[in-house]
Amino acid sequence: MYAAHPPQVTRPDLMALVEKYDGRAPRYTSYPTAVQFNPGVDVATYEAWLAALPADEAVSVYAHIPFCGRLCWFCGCSTRAVNRHEPVSEYAKLLVEELGLVRKALGATRPAKAVHLGGGTPNMLSPDDMEILFGAIAETFALRDDAEVAAELDPATLTRDWVQAAGRHGLNRASLGVQSLSPQVQAAVNRKESYEEVARCVSWLREVDVGSVNIDLMYGLPHQTSINMVETLDRIIGLRPERLALFGYAHVPWMKAHQQLIDEAALPGPMERLDQSEAAAERLIAAGYVRIGLDHFALPGDELAIALAEGRLHRNFQGYTTDDAGALIGVGASAIGFLPQGFVQNAAQELPWRKAIAEGRLATARGVALSDEDRFRGEIIERLMCDLKADLSELCARHGREVEVLAPALRRLRDFEDDGLVRLDGACVQITELGRLLVRSVCAVFDAYFEPEAGRHSKAI
Q1: Which residue of 66, 262, 378, 390 has the smallest Cβ count within 10 Å?
Q2: Per the database record, which ranges form the Radical SAM core domain (predicted)?
């Protein structure tokens, strides 16, 4: 077994802990989570929130590209596979129209500090599509000289021409979805690509001076083991990406029908998943990477690791981030944004989104307005997710509350403390290394909306 579990914890004890705490829990990329989004936040609400944004405060921009050249059976994203370019180019033109509607609601150009292309597969956009999209972004926002421009990329469909075109638009951070290099695992999830393809993509990105390359990997996939997990890592580490994300596969076939194509009998169990995650963490730490939060790793000189050390790490729908913008403007089908007043989401399905934009109206379908209590609990959860610790006294003082309001949550944490998953020092909560992979379960203690029996979320490990 590769995993380095704490020596004082026997394997039977560890199995008992996994059985006790490996329930379903949110990923906490927002608080409240998307489960609480509702249609009460509509187009009129969003327009009012946009108009109220301070004119001199920099925002971030997210564009969702819901197309892929192939359908990966593990995928939990809002996307679809296409074999013609026409739907993609038509979609890009509608993104331009949507940005025009956002510009009208804003009433004035706002500075922007980051642009993130997500999906799906943003490299399904052609260079011409990117030209019109970035042109519209430049009309709507004043992109700062030091802005982060990032894209999520599929190595199997990425081309050197695409990378060079993106480089001309300022691409300086990229994330390559790899998941696993094991042929058996790849065949089981319909995602085949070679190490050579991945290495070639990294070299293209370096040619245009992309200074931060991330590799997405997964554990818990069918036929995945600690051995083939580490074999994948040994090859990826040789490319020396600045960051790696190690996500646990979330098997939710009741939400994503294509996941029914996965053989459930080939999925590793909770202890196997834990072994894979810890084996990967051990290997990455030995290679000089800093472990960040639940599932990220970064080289010590990368901005993500520096932000962790300085206590200014954040978490949003793209995962762990250094982005501290007070607003994120999302465009595209299913795109989520946030503003000081709350979260907003476009129509999740592409056709309703297309219809709304074509008719000259924003496609806002739902969201949630933040209460003071949401902001209070959201900050506790973000600090736990990012720093694995939270000074509840300090947070209560900042939000004008007495620590006593958290007494029920602290009582619930006594079980976690008894099992060695957290340490409590008065009102300070510290998640231990043993408890790291269960940080979502710890956060759920502070979640006023969480319903553990509702079955809406993925497993905690």
Answers
A1: 378
A2: 53-287
